[in-house]
């Protein structure tokens, strides 16, 4: 359907207009345009400023605990009986996921721009917690928009945000999930544009967000690439990450995009299955290009261009779109995106917990399920690096429910 | 370019008064009732009609218009049906300018060229698409202009003198000044600030400048209309529909009349705007 011209490099985008092929762009209300242009300038200046890099680097080291380890998952590798599997341990970061990488970078930008109030959207609550955390750290007021359904199913994270001093605003519009939270955050932003910085949590939204979130999350792949070379002497045969909006995935993939010997796989939320109407959140496997939340990308939508809600057991993957660079990487064929069902993710969740003593987030369990499919078909001399993007404490209620238990 | 918008503002200039621009959502609360309401607008005093194209994710709209869109979508409204409504309106009203307003995705999915052709054929005069700033002109603005459909741009309090020329460059029909930084139907605009902003925009263009977002009453309309070439009222009209519905959200015998009465009242406000001068 969308046959793009293959580029010399997969790492040169976006272009000046914020596009990756036909994807990306700046589809926002005029009120926000001046601010988005200002953000782009601030980002261009900051990324060339050694002081910015030094400040972010120090926070990454001493606050987040970077570099995160690269861990050889020996028992899981044995159990699957094929490729040797490594985990990039983003779940060990402060706040328990990769989300902190982006939040620290963006809050430094917000401070440079003189903004005095931070807003964010959150689905599972991981980005909300990370945003509330950096706001506490820098003493800025924080409002987190969260779908009412998600507020209900992610109570521990809601309480964490409140402890950290953030105001959590439940959004009842629509199905009360991540896309509705993002709509409401955009409405707040347009109203308070003078004072407010919108700290977007995923590699989507209007340009420059997809690029700047990728760059802040890119530390995952840069570290993993070096660590693999140091530990094994060669690049991995494959890298794998889960994809909702796709921030941990693009952070993991970016450093490997121009290594043709490294195969790259993204795991989308297949929910109840791809054949179940509106029963999944796999926008690249089950959606079509469209425009939402500031960018053109693959979207779950009906034949009239109305956006569908989608479904995933994982609140963090329950989003009808995906970052525009992923949409482009899909069309170019550089990255293979596969749907993983709720059941496959749950099985992988248990497998990882039993064999490695690591309780993964349900989001990351989608990546693990992809690994469980790939590894047995690969040789023992081959390697896979999985981005273990978050820890699963927040999901134990959901998992218990799936086992017919009540905590 | 269709001529209706230009003709209408020319007439209004001769009459020495600003335009009353009314916004309603297509298919709200159902297709037939909406068509009846729209048909009655010109007689009630509306000079231009904006018809909303409902979208599942209206990021720039407040609760009233969000609800209107939800009612319309729930009733099965589609872009195709909206265009059919316009065509039926045109059968009885060849003169009143009609502008479609909404978000880009339903148009993108319909197909840009197909949409532009169908809109012209139905009798649409212009488009307002909230999430297409000038940076995105290739998407719809230029194809629309090329075929003769006006593309009406939003200018906002954050659009400074530096940016204004870019915003006005491919604008035609009129300029829609968003009187507040915010969503539709929220804070009331400050008439003094609006007057200054309209003056600033007029320094850059000869196009009429209409003002909207937050205008609810005849008094506000009169006040804003002193400086503006037109006053846009939307959320208040849509709320009048909402409060006329029965518990199931269906139209009652009050629904059609509720809008017409409010429009007549607003029209009086607009007509009194310049008398005080």
UniProtKB/TrEMBL annotation, chain A:
One of the record's GO cellular component terms: cytoplasm
One example GO MF annotation: tryptophan synthase activity
Coiled-coil residue windows: none
Pathway noted in the entry: Amino-acid biosynthesis; L-tryptophan biosynthesis; L-tryptophan from chorismate: step 5/5
Main enzyme class: lyase
Cofactor: pyridoxal 5'-phosphate
PROSITE patterns tied to this protein: TRP_SYNTHASE_BETA
EC number: 4.2.1.20
Residues with N6-(pyridoxal phosphate)lysine modification: 99
SUPFAM superfamilies found in the cross-reference section: Tryptophan synthase beta subunit-like PLP-dependent enzymes
Keyword Nuclease: no
NCBIfam families: trpB (TIGR00263)
Family: Belongs to the TrpB family.
Oligomeric and partner information: Tetramer of two alpha and two beta chains.
HAMAP family the record matches: Trp_synth_beta
Name the record gives this protein: Tryptophan synthase beta chain
Organism name: Consotaella salsifontis
Automatic annotation (TrEMBL), chain B:
Organism encoding this protein: Consotaella salsifontis
Coiled-coil ranges per UniProt: none
The keyword 4Fe-4S is assigned to this record: no
UniProt-recorded name of the protein: Tryptophan synthase alpha chain
UniProt GO MF annotations: tryptophan synthase activity
InterPro entries: Aldolase_TIM (IPR013785), RibuloseP-bd_barrel (IPR011060), Trp_synthase_alpha_AS (IPR018204), Trp_synthase_suA (IPR002028)
HAMAP family reported in the protein's UniProt record: Trp_synth_alpha
Active site (record annotation): 50, 61
Subunit structure as annotated in this protein's UniProt entry: Tetramer of two alpha and two beta chains.
Highest taxon, organism lineage: Bacteria
Gene3D superfamilies, per the entry: Aldolase class I
Role of this protein: The alpha subunit is responsible for the aldol cleavage of indoleglycerol phosphate to indole and glyceraldehyde 3-phosphate.
